[in-house]
Amino acid sequence: MNKTKQSNRRQVLIFASSLIVAGPLIVSADVSPSDIHVFKNPQCGCCNAWIKILTDEDFTVISEDLSSNLLTAFKVENGIPMNMMSCHTAKFGGYFIEGHVPPSDIKRLITERPDALGLAVPAMPYGSPGMGPEEEREAYDVFIVGLDGAAKVFQHYPKAGIPV
Angle at which helices 45-56 and 103-112 pack, to 10 degrees? Predict the structure, then answer.
Protein backbone atom coordinates (compact mmCIF):
# COMPACT_ATOMS: atom_id res chain seq x y z
CA MET A 1 0.00 0.00 0.00
CA ASN A 2 1.40 3.39 -0.88
CA LYS A 3 1.92 6.13 1.70
CA THR A 4 -0.99 8.31 0.47
CA LYS A 5 -3.55 5.50 0.77
CA GLN A 6 -2.22 4.60 4.22
CA SER A 7 -2.47 8.22 5.36
CA ASN A 8 -6.03 8.61 4.03
CA ARG A 9 -7.10 5.36 5.67
CA ARG A 10 -5.63 6.49 9.00
CA GLN A 11 -7.48 9.82 8.75
CA VAL A 12 -10.78 8.05 8.05
CA LEU A 13 -10.27 5.72 11.03
CA ILE A 14 -9.41 8.64 13.34
CA PHE A 15 -12.46 10.58 12.15
CA ALA A 16 -14.78 7.56 12.58
CA SER A 17 -13.40 6.88 16.06
CA SER A 18 -13.94 10.48 17.12
CA LEU A 19 -17.56 10.33 15.93
CA ILE A 20 -18.21 7.24 18.03
CA VAL A 21 -16.83 8.92 21.14
CA ALA A 22 -18.31 12.37 20.48
CA GLY A 23 -21.65 11.16 19.10
CA PRO A 24 -23.57 11.51 22.38
CA LEU A 25 -22.06 14.96 22.90
CA ILE A 26 -23.07 16.11 19.42
CA VAL A 27 -26.67 14.99 19.94
CA SER A 28 -26.70 16.56 23.42
CA ALA A 29 -25.85 19.93 21.92
CA ASP A 30 -29.22 19.92 20.10
CA VAL A 31 -31.23 19.06 23.20
CA SER A 32 -33.26 21.79 24.87
CA PRO A 33 -32.54 22.41 28.58
CA SER A 34 -36.13 21.34 29.28
CA ASP A 35 -35.61 17.95 27.59
CA ILE A 36 -34.47 14.89 29.47
CA HIS A 37 -31.98 13.00 27.32
CA VAL A 38 -31.88 9.28 28.11
CA PHE A 39 -28.95 7.07 27.11
CA LYS A 40 -29.79 3.36 27.19
CA ASN A 41 -29.11 -0.08 25.86
CA PRO A 42 -31.46 -0.82 22.91
CA GLN A 43 -32.52 -4.20 24.34
CA CYS A 44 -33.61 -2.85 27.73
CA GLY A 45 -37.38 -3.00 28.21
CA CYS A 46 -37.38 -1.44 31.68
CA CYS A 47 -35.64 1.66 30.28
CA ASN A 48 -38.52 2.10 27.83
CA ALA A 49 -41.02 1.63 30.69
CA TRP A 50 -39.23 4.39 32.68
CA ILE A 51 -39.29 6.68 29.63
CA LYS A 52 -43.05 6.13 29.28
CA ILE A 53 -43.55 7.07 32.95
CA LEU A 54 -41.56 10.28 32.37
CA THR A 55 -43.59 11.23 29.29
CA ASP A 56 -46.81 10.52 31.23
CA GLU A 57 -45.48 13.04 33.80
CA ASP A 58 -45.07 15.68 31.06
CA PHE A 59 -41.31 15.37 30.59
CA THR A 60 -40.06 15.77 27.03
CA VAL A 61 -37.82 12.74 26.53
CA ILE A 62 -35.21 12.13 23.88
CA SER A 63 -33.67 8.67 23.99
CA GLU A 64 -30.49 7.43 22.45
CA ASP A 65 -29.35 3.82 22.23
CA LEU A 66 -25.71 3.10 23.04
CA SER A 67 -23.75 -0.13 23.17
CA SER A 68 -22.89 -1.38 26.65
CA ASN A 69 -19.27 -0.22 26.34
CA LEU A 70 -20.20 3.30 25.21
CA LEU A 71 -22.92 3.54 27.86
CA THR A 72 -20.48 2.58 30.62
CA ALA A 73 -17.91 5.07 29.32
CA PHE A 74 -20.60 7.77 29.27
CA LYS A 75 -21.50 7.01 32.90
CA VAL A 76 -17.86 7.22 34.01
CA GLU A 77 -17.31 10.48 32.08
CA ASN A 78 -20.32 11.99 33.86
CA GLY A 79 -19.02 11.15 37.34
CA ILE A 80 -21.39 8.32 38.19
CA PRO A 81 -19.71 6.15 40.85
CA MET A 82 -19.56 2.43 39.99
CA ASN A 83 -21.69 1.51 43.02
CA MET A 84 -24.44 3.92 41.87
CA MET A 85 -24.73 2.61 38.29
CA SER A 86 -27.92 1.16 36.86
CA CYS A 87 -29.23 0.34 33.40
CA HIS A 88 -29.77 3.80 31.89
CA THR A 89 -28.47 7.32 32.36
CA ALA A 90 -30.21 10.59 31.63
CA LYS A 91 -29.04 14.19 31.48
CA PHE A 92 -31.45 16.89 32.62
CA GLY A 93 -30.97 20.44 33.78
CA GLY A 94 -27.21 20.04 34.18
CA TYR A 95 -27.57 16.87 36.30
CA PHE A 96 -27.33 13.17 35.60
CA ILE A 97 -30.25 10.91 36.47
CA GLU A 98 -29.06 7.33 36.88
CA GLY A 99 -31.50 4.44 36.88
CA HIS A 100 -35.14 4.26 37.92
CA VAL A 101 -35.45 7.62 39.68
CA PRO A 102 -39.08 8.63 40.29
CA PRO A 103 -40.27 11.72 38.36
CA SER A 104 -41.16 13.48 41.64
CA ASP A 105 -37.51 13.29 42.74
CA ILE A 106 -36.31 14.68 39.41
CA LYS A 107 -38.74 17.61 39.81
CA ARG A 108 -37.54 18.17 43.38
CA LEU A 109 -33.90 18.16 42.22
CA ILE A 110 -34.62 20.81 39.59
CA THR A 111 -36.63 22.93 42.05
CA GLU A 112 -33.98 22.79 44.80
CA ARG A 113 -30.94 22.98 42.45
CA PRO A 114 -28.38 21.59 44.94
CA ASP A 115 -24.66 21.59 44.19
CA ALA A 116 -24.49 18.00 43.01
CA LEU A 117 -23.76 15.82 40.00
CA GLY A 118 -27.13 14.10 40.02
CA LEU A 119 -29.48 11.45 41.37
CA ALA A 120 -29.11 7.68 41.27
CA VAL A 121 -31.11 4.57 42.04
CA PRO A 122 -28.45 1.86 41.89
CA ALA A 123 -29.27 -1.55 40.49
CA MET A 124 -32.90 -2.01 39.52
CA PRO A 125 -35.11 -2.28 42.62
CA TYR A 126 -38.43 -4.02 42.09
CA GLY A 127 -41.30 -1.55 42.17
CA SER A 128 -39.23 1.50 41.30
CA PRO A 129 -40.59 3.36 38.22
CA GLY A 130 -40.41 1.00 35.25
CA MET A 131 -39.54 -2.03 37.38
CA GLY A 132 -42.91 -3.48 38.30
CA PRO A 133 -45.94 -2.34 40.25
CA GLU A 134 -45.32 0.26 42.94
CA GLU A 135 -47.82 -1.45 45.26
CA GLU A 136 -45.41 -4.44 45.34
CA ARG A 137 -42.16 -2.48 45.57
CA GLU A 138 -39.20 -3.40 47.70
CA ALA A 139 -37.61 -0.69 49.83
CA TYR A 140 -35.06 1.43 47.99
CA ASP A 141 -33.25 4.75 48.19
CA VAL A 142 -32.70 7.53 45.71
CA PHE A 143 -29.20 8.90 46.26
CA ILE A 144 -27.83 12.34 45.50
CA VAL A 145 -24.24 12.27 44.27
CA GLY A 146 -22.25 15.29 45.39
CA LEU A 147 -19.61 17.13 43.41
CA ASP A 148 -17.00 15.05 45.26
CA GLY A 149 -18.65 11.79 44.13
CA ALA A 150 -19.99 10.96 47.60
CA ALA A 151 -23.56 9.70 47.72
CA LYS A 152 -26.17 10.23 50.40
CA VAL A 153 -29.87 9.43 50.62
CA PHE A 154 -32.05 12.01 48.85
CA GLN A 155 -35.34 10.13 49.27
CA HIS A 156 -36.23 6.80 50.90
CA TYR A 157 -39.05 4.59 49.61
CA PRO A 158 -40.16 1.96 52.11
CA LYS A 159 -41.37 -1.47 51.12
CA ALA A 160 -44.97 -1.27 49.86
CA GLY A 161 -47.49 -1.74 52.62
CA ILE A 162 -45.14 -0.49 55.34
CA PRO A 163 -46.50 2.69 57.01
CA VAL A 164 -44.27 5.72 56.56
Answer: 60
